[in-house]
Amino acid sequence: MNKLQTFGACLTAGLALTTQIACKKSNRNDDNPDVNQYKHVNDWIYQNMKEVYYWTDNMPASPDYKQTPPAFFSSLLKQPEDRYSWIQDNFEELLASLSGVTKESGIDYDLFPITGNSGTLIGGIISYVKKGSPAEAAGIVRGDVFFQISGKTFPYTGRQSEVNAFVDALSVNHSLGIRKMLVGSDGRDSMSDMRIVPLTVVEFAENPVYLDSVYTIDGKKIGYFVYNFFAPDKGDNSFAYDNQVDAVFGRMKNAGVQHLILDLRYNPGGDGRSTINLGSNLVKGASAGDEFFHRKFNTTFEAALKAEYGADYPISKFTAEANNW
């Protein structure tokens, strides 16, 4: 392979403290926080952050322990450098989600505001539909838009709680008022009539190996691979997804592919083991044992990790992959 094009690559590896995307649900209650019950939880957050946080030396010495835990956590972060850290109240849900296992109907979507006669509403546009999901079975496709969930619209005045309500409505069995964007002969956009689509929320294991194909253009074999997050398996230690990635590159190698388009536009990151597996299939001439990436920790934590696991602990290395080009 001699050409590599990436869309929105985000190869990440780190601790379980990572950041909330702005349009996603936040656990923070800005409207009516109870400020009298959080001291014990906030003290636990502070002590753990002091131990493992990369910018531990920049944490405030006397934070406000009366804040809600999400607000307290945010107050400890170094700004503006730290755009990546978030707090989540259920580690089992977090671990499952990192392997693509979530309770959902199978849509990935972006939020946007739309202003009309009744004010500003929150809307969603489908970015992609997960294979084998209830949403796929219901005929929802990329580009569909919705402003109504279970017969209800969601006004937006800029408050996070309004976004939370919209996202919460998608976390249980619901219906979507689906419309399609239409372009008229005059070039103006309009929307189709709304159709109501009932959707069931299930525990769904998404496969990140979304699409691979080979094209011949101007006599050149071009591979196209859509890879939606980094996870070796669905949390069962089978390495099934990494094995599928290996198989993708095996098919491309056998087809004589010379150029690759790697589509990571919906990939938010994930497990470092899978980034190594992908890179070890991609990088021509890479040898097992060559350094792939190097983690950095705060000084005290890194010293403790090296003492426990050896001096090479922060270094992750390429692996030998039979289908490397």
Verbal overview:
The chain is an alpha+beta fold. It is 25% helix and 27% strand. It contains eight helices and 16 strands. The strands form five sheets. Strands 3, 4, 5, 6, 7 and 10 form a six-stranded antiparallel β-sheet that branches. A four-stranded mixed β-sheet has the order 1-14-13-12, covered by helices on one side. A two-stranded antiparallel sheet has the order 2-11. Strand 5 (145-149) and strand 6 (152-153) form a beta hairpin. The chain starts with a strand and ends in an 8-residue tail after the last strand. Mean pLDDT is 87; it is low at 2-26.
SSE diagram, text form:
Blueprint: E1 3-7, H1 39-52, H2 69-76, H3 91-98, E2 101-104, E3 107-116, E4 119-129, H4 134-137, E5 145-149, E6 152-153, H5 160-169, E7 174-179, E8 181-183, E9 189-191, E10 195-199, E11 202-205, E12 209-217, E13 220-227, H6 240-254, E14 259-263, H7 272-282, E15 291-294, H8 299-309, E16 315-317
Parallel strand pairs: 1-14, 13-14
Antiparallel strand pairs: 2-11, 3-4, 4-5, 5-6, 5-7, 7-10, 8-9, 12-13, 15-16
